[in-house]
Design goal:
By secondary structure, the chain is an all-alpha fold. It has a single domain (27-234, 245-456), classed as Growth Hormone, Chain: A (Up-down Bundle). The chain has 20 helices and no strands. It has helices at 2-10, 17-52, 54-61, 67-83, 85-99, 101-121, 125-128, 131-161, 166-195, 200-219, 226-233, 242-245, 252-262, 264-282, 288-312, 318-342, 346-359, 367-372, 379-435, 450-456. Helix 5 (85-99) packs antiparallel against helix 6 (101-121). The chain starts with a helix and ends with a helix.
Length: 458
């Protein structure tokens, strides 16, 4: 089909060497984009396998305590994934900006495979005492260190190998496949726990380790992005230090806007999958397996929502989508305490969780706009750092804020925090839109932004 389309619109004969060369290039591009999506899926399968099975694993690797202390331990385990992310952003950003996108994202997948294998082989707390939680937390920190290079690396790779508006859909596919990896982690976890309730989780982690190794090997077939290759061959990466890659006064505003937009997701993710999901256990008596199965459905709906936003990005300007969605989310948040207080069945809880995830979704489908707002050499570092800081600051605030605020002020206090974060999100979206140097609209729905992309990257 691609050959026929190329032949029809280019005027080249299928026997022409230029036609064959173009066909090979199209095939290589498709192969690279496919490998990126598969790698993102595998990476986040490993990362979120622990998150979705935390209700089981926290009882195995941590000492038994009262419910309040247990919630603090769960919060720390959840947030430990984000502690090393800023360091990971600087480390992988430096490698990605000076040595290439390809080698960096291969490395991230390999680290994730090692961590999953270690967790699968780790003895419980009853066997080795305090060593168990120490190793567990270290592995989670290392997974977070790796994941920051993976997600932003994949986004950067796709942004530099595609053109708008296709870019907005393809970058959203990265988010879709990372979320699908999380959903698949839930499904695999539930499956192996059903087969073996005692040690099924170990099989799930061994499985995750194996597929991560496969992903690393597959990504060795990637080719470097044309944009980075040009910068590298032009000598623009020589004699660069980490300081040269950090945000400058020209990119500081874009950096803060991207940081503000990405601050929202950690909150609504924790709120939906951990805080509200706990209601299923405490109020409705759900077992661990039932909670996992329930969250599997929620995660599936979120994946469909991400895909839908990607499709919308092909027809509507992404910043317009972010503005409308953020405004609707703000209105919804004011009704959230009433809706949760009125919930009388697990189905009502399910709907509330789905709405939180559908109206949230961070920067989708505008990731490419934010990433292209940074210069080509420095893009990986600055985008990674903004993403990492949003995760560590907001996850620590969210995990402990929800626990402490919920203890004293209930869900109304937590909703107040949500409203603040949505406000930060909206201010960042409108501020970034105001500085976008885009030309007049080609039509009322979809302005071209070629000028913005080239000027901001200079």
């Amino acid at each position: 089909m691609k050959k026929h389309k190329l032949h029809k619109h280019s005027g080249l004969s299928q026997k022409d060497p230029l036609f064959k060369k173009a066909s090979k290039r199209n095939f290589a591009d498709t192969k690279s984009l496919t490998l990126i999506q598969i790698g993102a899926f595998l990476e986040y399968f490993d990362l979120y396998l622990y998150v979705h099975m935390a209700v089981v694993l926290n009882e195995i690797f941590f000492p038994k305590t009262d419910p309040y202390t247990a919630s603090l331990i769960a919060a720390f385990t959840f947030s430990s994934t984000y502690i090393l992310r800023p360091i990971g952003a600087l480390f992988f950003g430096y490698l990605g900006d000076l040595f290439g996108r390809k080698s960096t994202i291969i490395m991230t997948t390999s680290i994730m495979a090692f961590c999953s294998f270690t967790i699968a082989s780790l003895p419980p707390y009853q066997a080795i005492g305090i060593t168990a939680p120490i190793i567990m937390i270290f592995c989670r920190m290392l997974q977070g260190f790796s994941s920051i290079g993976e997600f932003v690396g994949a986004m950067t790779y796709v942004t530099e190998t595609t053109s708008p508006p296709k870019t907005y859909f393809i970058t959203t596919l990265v988010a879709f496949f990372t979320n699908l990896g999380s959903t698949f982690a839930l499904a695999i976890g539930a499956f192996f726990m059903f087969i073996n309730a005692e040690n099924g989780w170990r099989t799930a982690f061994y499985f995750g380790s194996a597929i991560a190794v496969i992903g690393s090997v597959a990504r060795s077939q990637l080719r470097e992005t044309p944009e980075f290759s040009h910068e590298y061959l032009s000598g623009n990466t020589k004699n660069k230090t980490l300081k040269d890659l950090l945000p400058s006064h020209k990119t500081k505003r874009n950096f803060l806007c991207y940081l503000g937009v990405e601050c929202l997701r950690p909150f609504y993710f924790y709120l939906s999958f951990i805080y509200i999901a706990a209601i299923l256990r405490n109020t409705y008596g759900y077992t661990t397996s039932e909670v996992i199965s329930h969250n599997l459905g929620v995660s599936f709906i979120e994946s469909l929502a991400i895909l839908a936003y990607g499709r919308l990005g092909l027809h509507y300007y992404p910043m317009k989508i972010l503005k409308i969605r953020g405004s609707l989310f703000l209105v919804f948040s004011f009704f959230l305490p009433f809706l949760l207080g009125s919930a009388s069945t697990p189905y009502h809880i399910f709907l509330i969780q789905c709405l939180l995830l559908i109206l949230g979704e961070g920067a989708c489908p505008a990731h490419a706009l934010f990433i292209r707002a940074f210069p080509a050499i420095g893009r990986y570092t600055q985008a990674s750092l903004a993403y990492a800081l949003s995760r560590i600051v907001m996850t620590l605030t969210t995990a402990y804020g929800c626990t402490l605020v919920g203890e004293y002020f209930g869900f109304i206090g937590i909703t107040a925090l949500l409203i603040v974060f949505i406000g930060i999100y909206l201010v960042s979206v409108f501020s970034f839109s105001a500085t976008s140097n885009k030309p007049q609209s080609l039509n009322k729905n979809y302005p071209a932004e070629t000028n913005f992309e080239t000027s901001s990257a200079s």
